[in-house]
User: Fold these one by one.
Assistant:
Number 1:
Amino acid sequence: MASHLLARREAREGFLFALPYLLGMLVFVLLPLVAVLGMSLTGWSLLDAPTFKGFANYAKLARDLEFRGSLGVTAIFTVGIVALNLTVALLLASLLNVRLAGIAAFRSMVFSPVVMPIVAWSLIWKFLLQPQGPLNTGLQHLGLDANLLLNPKTALGTLIVIEVLKAVGLNTVIFLSALQGVPPEQREAARLDGASPWQVYRHITLPMISPTLFLVFLVTVIGALKVFTPIWVLTGGGPAGATTTLIVAMFKQGFTFFEFGYASAIAAVLFFAVLLLTLLQWRLRKALVFYED
Amino acid sequence: MRTDAVSAGARRAERLPARPAWTLLLYVLLALVCLPFVLPILWMFLSSLKSAQGIFGSPFGLNVDAGLKNFTQVFAGYPFARQYLNSLLTLAISVPVTMLLAATAGYAFARMRFPGRDVAFVMTLAAMMVPAELVAIPQFIAFKNLHLTNTLVPIILLQIFSATGALSVFLMRQHFITLPRELEEAGRIDGLGTLGVFRYIMLPLSRPVLATVAIFAVLNSWNDYFNPLIYLNDEAKMTLPLALQRFTDPLGGTYWNLTLAASVLVALPVLLAFLMAQRTFIESLAASGTKG
Amino acid sequence: MRHRTLPAALTSFLILGGSAGAADLRFSTWAGGDGLALLQQLAQEYGAKTGTNVKVEVTPFADYSRKLAVQIASGDAPDIGWVAERDVPTFIASNNLANLSALGKDASFNLNDFATSSLALWKRGANLYGIPFSNSPLVLFYNKDLFKQAGLADPTVQYAKGQWNYTNFQKAALAIKQKTGSSGARVMRLDPKAWAGGLLAVLWSSGGGVYDKNMKCNLNSAGSLQAFGLMQNMMFKDQSMPRPGDQTSFDGGKLGMYFDNISYAGQLKDAGFKWGVAPLPKGSAGRVTQLGQAGYAVFSKGKNQAEAVNFLKFLASKENMARTAKFFPPPRQSVLKSSAYLNANPAVPASALKTALISQLGQARVLQTDTNWLKANDLITGSLDQVFQPGANTKAILDRTCQTVDGL
């Protein structure tokens, strides 16, 4: 009886605790999202009245070469960003996790691209990556015919590197704080038992920070799928569609061509793909994460 | 598990290498690794002191031909000071509210059973993934009907409840599920109610995660471009990322020298805040002994 | 007391932004700096004259039409505003611009003062959907110092002798490249997405273009291919023309010649070199320059159309266009030919303005597009990325492009 009462009280209190956020999310995100799913069933140019088209937009997606191309670009971009970002962030965090006079300055340097406004950030990269700019001529001296950002073969990879350079500071800081939470006593004990530094890292440090790794992994995957402005200002999805990710394709349809019904269909595909991926990761976390309730 | 004598020692980073030669080598290595990260921002600082001719004439030259002229012009010719204030105000409201709502909702998701909890949590995960551009139109119609367009209100509310908010709730929940239940029980024995347990036991143990949430919230609020673009019509109401697009000639051609000077002013406070807070931030994260 | 006033002040700051006052009319623009100040001044004068309160709303140029579309879609359209050239066909086709043909009968407005060619973009049959405020032909900016160093005759001199054609243009560019090390000539803007500004003049002057008379894709015609051939030669053989992606800009002083609208002169105020303006070179099909336009339009979903038309008449009147002409080349003939306009820019002497700008208006063209322009533009941008690569198979690329563009 008493436990029943307690459960009811917990339910009431839990509901009240979550309510302010849930209410806002419902009104400002979920209802608009439902409306957008509805829009994906219409032909709507934003500029005139919507007309109901059923699943015609989705049928068109299946035939749309740019959309199909953007699926591949999105996959490469996302995998590239996540792999490179997490690896570099972990390496940097391990390197910056030393006690050294002036280490704060080095940490801030790695973080500094994060705070740079995107207009300034894209301008310097446009200078650096000019066809005859310093980076390309450097590579040309090595015998490569490089035009990194304007050659469809190299543009996506270049964009991935630039984006990781910009964003990796944030993940580095989070990893750094996780690394500092690993008690050195455990590592020293392992070392006394004859473990190599790599074994200590692999079997003690990494498992200890695995919850952080998982969180950062999830956030980075979602972030990579949503990267828009850096692509838009650097390449606009070009050259020849080589950097048109799903979100760029959606933006182009919706806000450049004003085909908002069609853009909503692309968005719906993107949304469900990400949701599926996230739920999958959620399932996998038990296998990946060392300890959690 | 908690902050006891053992983990107090854990707060320390890797020990200093023993020999000075190694220390020197480490410095060289650090400098080399940090170079590609720090060069762009150094270039931005340098270019903000150049004229447009200087920036495009020799983009990597050291000719700072404009001195501080760009900076004075940014303030004299444009409502930049006012726009700065707008961004600060947006930040000052949205960041603490995001932290508070994320903490309460995250706590409820982690620790309390209530009907619809799991559905609501999946919806929160979903909200993390919704790009702002996608839901802009229905949101705009809602705010128009509330007569709140061309104000900072939608900017702030969308910061709190959209992707940033959802991410924050998610981070808080992940943190709260790792805290031992015994803590709450001890609090209840001491006569604290749910609110008391949350306020006096759980929140103080959450400072590092709150710091992470704060970093995300500050960066997202400070850099938000799309929503201000859609909602704000007056130059005097604009926030900084939008303001950075307004240093143009009469037909819209960019004055890069002014844009870069303004960019410096946008980046500098965040960078300084990080430099000053990084030690506290990184160590407070580590100190809590949270596993995530 | 303090506790009560602080939230109140905060609320008013958030909601009203300090400046209250109901607007009777909303005017939307992407103007910046002095141009915006002038428009605000005009709005105020109109308010003082008529009692109608006009509010000027601004959006960055890059996202101007996006914001406008969101406002229209949400039932929050402004009453009147600027419309960019690229968006005109789409906005007309979707019935978002009000028909202004009644202005033709308004003697005081005197629509005849506008050259017929300057209204072509805005007309559908007898209907008129906007009034241009800027009618800006491309001119050639050239760096006098570099011409002197290379021992070349100025383009104006060559023009006077009737020798200023694309062959001599290419030669001059090459000479500058070889003798000064600076780039010879740039036709397109820095942003590859803005390819239409510049490239079209070259295409048209050699008999090509984006569309032919029947609005079929014309990018793969012999004339167009000749023009692309010239540019590819200059980019990759002579190396006298910066490739797309290159950031060499004219105001940096390391570029001999550059095509842009006359308003670009505003960015050359502090240039550390001598420069001049000249007509574009002549091609096998004539000396055709491109007119860039932007105009005022009344939005048909605005709430106050009649008043908006009145404000448009005020803005585009002879007196006020003479004032905006300081920034935007005026489409009104009477203003364009006035000595006040010709002598307004101390950096460009009246004689140069006459030769480079006014004498070229007869052969100037506006890019006529249709409703699919926004998509076609995107496709063409993508294929130009491929055309301007060394060793590109131009014909094959453009054949494919035209097939897709015609299939839209």
Number 2:
Amino acid sequence: MDTSSFFVYPSDVTEKDARAIVFLETATDDDWQTLLDFTSTIRFHSGDIVIEQGDDDDSLAFIANGELEVLIAKGRSGKFERLTTFSEGSVIGEQSFLDRQPRSTRIRAITDGELYRLSRDAFTVLSARHPNLAMQVAMDLGRILSIRLRDTTKFLSASKK
Amino acid sequence: MSESAKPVFANFMQVTPTIPRWVWQILRLFSILTFAFLIWSLFNYSAITLTIFWGLAVPSLPLVFWLMPGLWRNLCPLAATNQLPRLFKLTFAKEIPPKIKRYANVVGLLLLFIAVPLRKIALNENADLLAMALLGIIGFALIGGILFKGKSGWCGSICPLLPVQRLYGQTPLAIVNNSHCSPCVGCTKNCFDFNPQVAYLADLYDSDPVLAGDRKFFAGMMPGLLLAYFYMPYSSEMPVYQLYLQFGLYCLIGIGTYQMIETLLKFSPQKNTALFALVSINIFYWYTAEVMAKTIALISPLDFAWWPVWTLRGFVAVMSVYWFWKTIEKEKLFLSQTFASSAQTKVASMRHLKKHAAKQSDNPSVILEPNGEEMVARPEMSLLDLLEANGHPINSGCRMGACGADPVAIIEGEERLEEKSAEETATLERLGYKTGVRMACCVKAAANIKINLDPNSIEQEEEEAEFEQDNSIHSVVIIGNGIAGVTAADYLRRHHKDIEIHLIGAEKYPLYNRMAISKLIYGRTALQSLILMPDEWYKKRNIQQWLNTQVENIDAIKQIVHLATGESINYDRLIITTGSNARIPAIDNWGIGGCYVLRTAEDGMAIRTYVQAHKCKRIIIAGGGLLGLEAAYAFTQVGLRVTVLERSESLLRRQLDSRAGGILHTYLAALGVTIIYQAEVAKVIGESHIDAVKLKTGETLKANLLLVAAGIVPNSKLIQDKNLETNKGILVDAHLRTSMKHIFAAGDIAELRENRGKLPGLWPVAVDQGRVAALNALGGDYSYHDKPVATGLKVVGVELTSMGEFSGLESDTIIAQKAGDKYRKLVIRDRRVIGCILLGYSEYSSKVVARINSGEELEAEQIEVLQNGDWQLFE
């Protein structure tokens, strides 16, 4: 399993991006423009809770700029501590987007920034108006989840050894 | 910039050090001096030095490793020496060859394995040899520091005590920050100094199994190594090889036990290694507690006693259980972080996002209080669109400002918004809002504003009644608590402070947003989100609500309403607003399980229940009107296969012409809705539950649920009253007065004499009529005349406004323009716009509607410009 998130040494700055899964790599400029036209824009401010754990919100978001942190309640005090951070270019919230389950973590803005939300309703309209693009989006989200699942399976089978 | 949260497992660079680095440097100088002193006294005062070194110093080290490993990592004289070349910039700072790196832990482990038995053979007694060994080791540490970068030459690789420190120190009680590495050069994988809390776990879970192997092997051998040292009998006659073999055997037993536990009990490596650490530390202090106590007795005037020995043993035992629990507990968090951080999803290039950002950098923004969310709007969007696009819970109904479902408070910037239309003003007035509140659907978010979804967050001035009230009226009864009835009740109270108002509703719920009941099929909030006024609203206005109450009959002569409960209420004025029911065409076998209409909230919830209980897959909707299509969309939202049967040849015949109908058809088909034209249900097939429907053409379609949406008929119950003149509904004059002087009717049930046979069945009409009927009931003189009403289809992605005469006559000027999947049409008669269809052109909607309402004439040039496709006039 990849445990390098705990050891982000100052000497290897590029490592983080190298590990990312790329979303819609083959989409054209037009595709992107169409897709983004179906999103709604939120400007967040440092300290804002952008996603709250337990909320019903089935949207996916692209971070255009700014930095956010994923928080988890730790121990009995329930104090929130940071699990990881997201920065510009990150795609977040795809799980709730796909399964419509409540949000699993809290995400808070560290800096000011902007993100684009693609709600399920907007996706429904996208799929009626631009079925090919919508299929690309859906397939790609499926691919990303599949990669995650593979990682998990690999991890589980490894930890059984 | 606000402070961000502390990372779950903060590394040393993310923590502000409490002790400055220079203090540590001084302490380290003392540490090296102490070491030098130790060597010196080993040569000069060997006996006492040996006693203190082995009897006190070495036995206390594991406690430090265990509770505060960072303290030793900072102070260890070997580490200090190893880091000297780096401090004075005398190091080659080479990368350790990967081979050596891979075996570094093995080297450290072997060194420890050689050293421990060597204590028995020589080091415990031979001070010279011990001094030489220590000097040799510090020499190696120094050479390591000269050659290799960071701490990779000794401390982070081959130091024989590192495996011990990592095992015991994996869950420090107190974290003492690394003060050596400034800057960190990233020399060691899963570095213990970098992130002491997770270094061990990271090794166990590393994708390179060698690291986990090292940890598990060492954890397994540790109890054996300790038992071999403390428990195994030894005499100086024993050959050296035999001693080492016996030590080896003990270690192997430990390793074997580790394997056994892993295999038999399936402990995770994390739990198993922690268990072995717990056992090891207890073994160690079981024996050394006594050694330490004896050493103290030897070098001080104190006598040996057992109680300190047991205290230490007890302390270690209790602490180790706590430590074990802490260690096990953090694994879950560790895994959460690992999965959260591994392989984030990113876009390939920021170009598209940046371009999108630039495109809307000047767009107005709407800040939603109380949480301050800032939404960026497109100027043509209504506030309602914006809120919906961002997933905020807001009611919506007519989307034209008539129904009153979506009032929002404008906290800041109200003056920057467009003026209210007459319709919006009337609605706000009806709702009792004067300033600071707008209907979200009527406001274009074209300026920076601050809003709150709770309209009551803006305080309203109390209304002072300035009218004469007719004190001969004491009681007004309203039958029907739909929008007409509630509006009437509201206006009654506004214009009469003292009358009793009885609002009798057959349904179980107070007024809800009937225009949105299809949401009950797919929404998760059930009726909650549709209720339009809270209970306080009725209380404050002193309106007596009778829910779930049927009216048996009306005694129009004695002016009494008899309820089915046996009670009766006297009235001075009666307003009938009983509304309408769903029209059910003649269908054979109608009424078995799975046959539904959608008229009330009860219907919507029953449908949702039935769909779940019977695991429905195929839905057939009879009727391609507004309600039928909204329901069709609702069913697709819960993943069902929907077929719409339309009697005519195109959709929404009361709202669209065939071109617009075609566009809508394409869109709905893409959403997955099947539409069959010229199709009517003849028969429902099934015993107790529906299996299929048979069409009039003879075709059979499988179905688990049939929803009939074939329009409405006025609620017939009171129509049969012999005193009331009726046709389809209850006939009323322009004052909405029925044939009985004191009885009025409003809403779907009211049929205007001047417009016989027409029953619009629309929410805005009901609102208007409710008001007029109430005012006239109190002696006013208001009249109501039919006028065109704008309607829309509430399906996501369809922006439709249809109003008035959208077909037109041959003599009319008709402007109809289609562009892709958008369509706009105006019907102009005598220079006045009398009807429109706007599909995908929501930006014109409010102005066109206002123009139709006002009847204002268009200039000849204006018509020409519109014909040429320039519709700026309506933007």
